[in-house]
Amino acid sequence: MKIHDVVIVGAGPGGLGCAIRAVESGLSYVLLEKGQNVFQGIVDSYPRGKKVYPTIPKSLNGPFPIPDLEPSEANEPVEEYVAKIDACVVRHGIDIAFNEEFQDISKEKGRFTVITKNNRYTARKVVLAFGSNIPIDLGVYGEAKTIARKLDNTEEHIGAPTLVLGGGNAAADVVSTLSKAKRDAGDQTPIYWGHRKEQFKVNKEVARDLGEEILLGGNIKILLSAIPKIGEVDEDGVDRLLIQTSQIPLGKGVDLQQGMSFPMKHVIACIGTQGPAPIYEQLNLQMITCTGGICRIGREGAKLILLDAHYQTSIKGIYAIGGAISPSYIAVEEKGSFQEVKHPNLIFTAIRDAQIAMADIVKRMSKRPSA
Ligand SMILES: Cc1cc2nc3c(=O)[nH]c(=O)nc-3n(C[C@H](O)[C@H](O)[C@H](O)COP(=O)(O)OP(=O)(O)OC[C@H]3O[C@@H](n4cnc5c(N)ncnc54)[C@H](O)[C@@H]3O)c2cc1C
Question: Which atom of ligand 1 is nearest to the CA of 101?
């Protein structure tokens, strides 16, 4: 198996910045992106036509460390900015491994193996640049492997009942888009829209699109108080999700539960995002819990990652940068003391972090005895 100098997780401004620095420094790298585009996080989270600002925090000085990634002073719309970044990827000869969703890291003999849904990559260093929007888990066995978080390909669901989970705009959007695709294909199989609460929370425009879909004959079935319970593999080897749809107490601690079971490949869970703390916990990266007086930015109870001056985590060789360490982290100083550091979540900061982390990696790699 090839051993890379560095595996970079996430092709946003931070991850792309790292890859550009790797190329310039002659380091071998793999840039993993769970989506199908560079800057997928930005493509997914910015409203259409949103102006992109080249904001530099007051506490830091410009210029942009990698000028090619700087949003223009004219505040171009996000579509133009992303098109410019596409061209920049080609110009810098950056390879991106798309549809590679990071899952875990193992360490053996000083090398890291980064595990994605489909592959394993071995490297001497790892940079975590996966941003701040990590999907919330349903908390059932097998979900990471099979349950989608957004509607990637409507075709995959034509001809099969589909379960969409979530009570907000994202879930509602998926329901109406999929319903239209099914109608257009003459497919009568239902879309079940499940939410663990008793009310959906969607804005007027989304509600209007949904209403239109239902009037036009969309086969949408609503499941309220629908609670994901169990992930299991059935006798045919199919990963399935069991959701509880009702629970009737029969007395003396006995309940009558009813539910439905769906193949996980036809489940789309749009149940929101959270910060990356659970991933850091899974990777055993040291964090500090904000309690009275320790943090000014982090909320009471929030877990903040511990980093050195080059964004190296408590596991030497693993770095974390950009949105993944915003809005604040705990800096460990050389004397061993530590303090919370404000870290604005901006394109500039992500690219600046990339520059600092990669400079440290290049320095350490050049000290490495040649093999
Ligand atoms: C609505 C909105 C408007 C904004 N406007 C501005 C602005 O005008 N100017 C500005 O400077 N900043 C703005 N920001 C902030 C800016 O977008 C972020 O600071 C910046 O994108 C952070 O870069 P990043 O590389 O750390 O993370 P991201 O841009 O989030 O990139 C992370 C990448 O990692 C990928 N990823 C996530 N999980 C995985 C995984 N498990 N495996 C593989 N890949 C993964 C994602 O798909 C994504 O492509 C805005 C943010 C939002 C939400």
Answer: 42
Q: What is the residue-level pLDDT of the chain in tens, covering all 371 positions?
A: 799 999 999 999 999 999 999 999 999 999 999 999 999 999 988 878 899 999 999 888 889 999 999 999 999 999 999 999 999 999 999 999 999 999 999 999 889 999 998 899 999 999 999 999 888 888 898 887 789 888 888 999 999 999 999 999 989 999 999 999 999 999 999 999 999 999 999 999 889 999 999 999 999 999 999 999 999 999 999 999 999 999 999 999 999 999 999 999 999 999 988 899 999 999 999 999 998 778 889 888 999 999 999 999 999 999 999 999 999 999 998 787 899 999 999 999 999 999 999 999 999 998 766 55
H or E element that contains 192: strand 191-194
- Pocket mutation for ligand 1, best pick of 143, 347, 349, 353 (most atoms within 8 Å of C-beta): 347
Take residue 152 and report the two structure tokens written for it. 């990637």
**Cα separation of 291 and 185, whole Å?**
55
- Residue closest via CA to ligand 1's atom 37 equals 130
The whole-angstrom separation of Cα 244 and Cα 256 is 11
> 40 CA distance to ligand 1 centroid (A)?
8
For ligand 1, mutation pick of 36, 42, 307 (most atoms within 8 Å of CB): 42
Residues 6+ apart with CB under 8 A from 341: 328, 329, 330, 331
Reported CATH class of domain 154-269: alpha beta
In the chain, residues under CATH classification 3.50.50.60 are: 3-133+310-322+341-366, 154-269
- Asked whether 322 and 13 are in contact (CB, 8 A), the reply is yes
Residue 348 CA to residue 138 CA, distance in Å, equals 33
Q: Are 168 and 202 in contact (CB under 8 A)?
A: yes
3-133+310-322+341-366 is classed CATH 3.50.50.60: yes
Alpha carbons 260 and 253: distance in angstroms, whole number: 22
